[in-house]
């Protein structure tokens, strides 16, 4: 199974120090202050069971996203809901893009699904094109689509998204759209299918505050679905009380932290452009990512190890289906951290050029 991000413990054992970690793509400002305060306050009631139906949480999430509370199924992070989704698809044919988030494949394999792959071409900057429609045929139980995609950071064209949704409806295919990084986009609403939920019974959207509000350790996620029978099955596939009282309160408070987002989003937008330009100056093949991370390719051997020796951890992406050795993903971090990363990269690049001269 592919491990998400880097492995800090392994890094420490290898290099003897904690890394500057670019392998984990969460909000560079760290945990939402309002979420942190709410989580700490909730500890006083951590000895009590949370509401089994999470009504307060679902009402807050529904108001934030503009959907009825009954559409929402909470989970112990998006990963919990991905495994529940795979349980619903047990033994059936499911379509994935390649590359995409590795958790889908891990979950589907665990439940004996037959996985079909639609390869995204590096020559087209890993963009999703209309050729994917040819793979959506009767007998296909589900299609897992990450938008923006991880690790490429690319979004699907909104017109194509609706064509995919309609083709899935015609073929009796459930479309699972992972929008966990949607909040980092310049225009999130343009690339979301949330507005289609009421009219589309075959659509399930995954969301989580993990990345946008830096709540990775608290484990909270949601599935949005208008079809009651599907929601009931998703609820039934989960454990009792999948969301802790602490995570629930933090999640509610995070949605109210508008000041935090007003600081975060311009920062991410500007620093993403700064990193992208820096990577291109080094002549690295850089994907035009739109979220809070960038995918690039370099033929410099053992590039991650060279950065590791300098105290920096990045995500090696050759474990992703559809990506070869030499692909790496970096998160967008704070300005001084991004500056250090590029300086270390430039030094490694200069050393390579000097060796080539001899």
Q: Tell me, briefly, the overall form.
A: globular
The CATH topology name of the largest domain reads: Aspartate Aminotransferase, domain 2
Helical stretch count?
A: 11
Number of DSSP strand runs:
13
Write the layout of secondary structure elements.
Layout: H1 8-15, E1 20-21, H2 33-42, H3 55-65, E2 72-75, H4 78-88, E3 93-98, H5 102-110, E4 114-119, E5 142-146, H6 158-171, E6 174-178, E7 203-207, E8 221-225, H7 228-237, H8 245-254, H9 258-281, E9 285-286, E10 293-297, H10 303-308, E11 312-313, E12 315-316, E13 327-331, H11 335-357
Helix pairs in contact: 2-8, 3-8, 4-5, 9-11
Considering the chains and any ligands shown, give keywords for the structure:
15% strand, alpha/beta, seven-stranded mixed beta sheet, 11 helices, globular, Aspartate Aminotransferase, domain 1, 13 strands
Describe this structure in words.
This protein is an alpha/beta fold and 358 residues long. The protein has two domains: 8-23 and 258-353, Alpha-Beta Complex (Aspartate Aminotransferase, domain 1); 33-254, Aspartate Aminotransferase, domain 2. Helices cover 38% and strands 15% of the residues. The chain is built from eleven helices and 13 strands. The chain has helices spanning 8-15, 33-42, 55-65, 78-88, 102-110, 158-171, 228-237, 245-254, 258-281, 303-308, 335-357; strands at 20-21, 72-75, 93-98, 114-119, 142-146, 174-178, 203-207, 221-225, 285-286, 293-297, 312-313, 315-316, 327-331. The strands form three sheets. Strands 2-8-7-6-5-3-4 form a seven-stranded mixed β-sheet, with helices on both faces. The chain is globular, with a radius of gyration of 21 Å.
């Amino acid at each position: 199974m592919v491990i998400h991000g880097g492995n800090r413990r392994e890094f420490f054992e290898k290099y003897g120090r904690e890394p500057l970690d670019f392998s984990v793509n969460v909000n560079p400002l760290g945990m939402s202050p309002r979420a942190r305060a709410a989580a700490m306050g909730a500890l006083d009631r951590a000895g009590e069971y949370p509401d089994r139906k999470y009504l307060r949480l679902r009402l807050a999430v529904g108001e934030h996203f503009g959907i009825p509370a009954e559409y929402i199924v909470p989970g112990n992070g998006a990963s919990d809901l991905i495994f529940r989704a795979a349980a619903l698809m047990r033994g059936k044919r499911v379509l994935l893009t390649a590359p995409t988030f590795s958790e889908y494949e891990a979950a589907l394999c665990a439940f004996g699904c037959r996985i079909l792959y639609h390869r995204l071409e590096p020559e087209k900057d890993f963009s999703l094109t209309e050729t994917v429609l040819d793979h959506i045929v009767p007998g296909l139980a589900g299609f897992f689509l990450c938008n923006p995609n991880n690790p490429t950071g690319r979004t699907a064209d909104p017109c194509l998204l609706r064509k995919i949704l309609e083709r899935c409806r015609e073929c009796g295919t459930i479309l699972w759209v992972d929008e966990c990084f949607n909040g980092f986009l310049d225009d999130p609403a343009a690339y979301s299918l949330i507005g289609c939920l009421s009219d589309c019974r075959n659509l399930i959207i995954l969301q989580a505050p993990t990345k946008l509000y830096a709540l990775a350790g608290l484990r909270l996620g949601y599935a949005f679905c208008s079809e009651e029978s599907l929601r009931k099955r998703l609820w039934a596939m989960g454990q009792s009380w999948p969301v802790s009282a602490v995570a629930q309160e933090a999640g509610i408070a995070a949605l109210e932290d508008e000041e935090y987002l007003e600081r975060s989003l311009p920062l991410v937008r500007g620093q993403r452009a700064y990193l992208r330009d820096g990577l291109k100056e080094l002549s690295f093949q850089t994907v035009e990512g739109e979220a809070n991370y960038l995918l690039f390719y370099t033929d410099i051997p053992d590039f991650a190890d060279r950065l590791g020796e300098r105290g920096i951890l990045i995500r090696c992406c050759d474990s992703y289906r559809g990506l070869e050795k030499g692909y790496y993903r970096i998160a967008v971090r704070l300005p001084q951290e991004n500056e250090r990363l590029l300086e270390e990269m430039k030094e490694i690049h200069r050393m390579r050029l000097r060796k080539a001269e001899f």
